[in-house]
């Protein structure tokens, strides 16, 4: 089991599969491996945190599998305050370009206008020579120590000593803005998401190496699969699901499918020397309609230039940017449906009276999101007197609120809580 230390003594984030839900990341386990705080499988014993509701599950210490525990060495330093992050990240803006590929993606796939792409300040994380970018950022600041505690930057040992560089996969960088227009974090839409195996039933396996794509452009991988006592080395193709049924009974035995993994990643360096984690707390992104941005002074809250009595909420910063322009409303992009508690203080500061949640159209078919929505209503009913509504539409008109607006439709808004 792979674990990462957290700020809570005796608790570790599970980097391998959670023994309760089977997923990686977010869930936590105690040092004794007797209690799991799972983010996905409900239990009667739970508590709310800034990353969502966590459910306590108690493991039988005598039944815990005796597997090797690998604890990631934590060399992280505390994240700097928002004003410092903003200062460094705005210096970074001046040193990073937006690649032609990502520019084309925003124009042709995301259907953004050229002036909108420019004013929203998207950037590209380069493949090589990142240390040169970090060096140029330092030259715009007071001292190299200004990068200490800034997620994304870290120290690397080189031939002539330590130097600053940048972590993260290559891809499109999307800035997160606070309600005061401070840039306090980034997400990267990676160009080449990792592959992973989706396995169900009596099967275990791992990806050994990625292979060249097939003639149709689908990704492929050599995999090791263990079925009963046999180990098979096979080549799997993306989205080609293999299902095994018992020849004797006709019952399901196992299935395996090669899938593209997570596309969006936080720009963080919490596992690096002198790096910093993006958490504590995670950023949330406030998107205003793009014409407002040139009038939005850093340090001034958004309600000074735009009506924030009604605020929309969706998942992800890029979707929020698109929705703000399509709806002509302020839109929060949160890092996940369960991270709603992060919105409480920003919404109060903006004087919000009405929150409209615009999750993807398959919300009612996604148990985790539907559960998070119920917890969200319960939370805001307890903490505020704000009106809550849900934006709904038929999935045939578009999966996300951005797709819906691109297709020329508006959602139906239904009241959840007066």
Structural class assignment:
alpha+beta
- Uncertain runs with pLDDT below 50, 5 residues or more? none
Instruction: Supply the number of structural domains.
Output: 4
Q: Overall 3D geometry?
A: globular
The CATH class of the largest domain:
Alpha Beta
Reported by name, the CATH topology of the largest domain is Dna Topoisomerase Vi A Subunit, Chain: A, domain 2
Mean pLDDT: 90
- Radius of gyration, rounded? 23 Å
**Biggest pleated-sheet summary:** 7 strands, mixed
Proportion of residues in β-strands:
25-35%
Percent range of helical residues: 10-25%
Measured between the Cα atoms of the first and last residue, the distance is: 46 Å
The CATH architecture of the largest domain is: 3-Layer(aba) Sandwich
Number of strands: 25
Strand order of the largest sheet: 5-6-4-3-2-1-7
Number of helices: 8
Protein name: DUF3854 domain-containing protein
Organism: Paenibacillus rhizovicinus
Keywords: Plasmid
InterPro entries: TOPRIM_DnaG/twinkle (IPR034154)
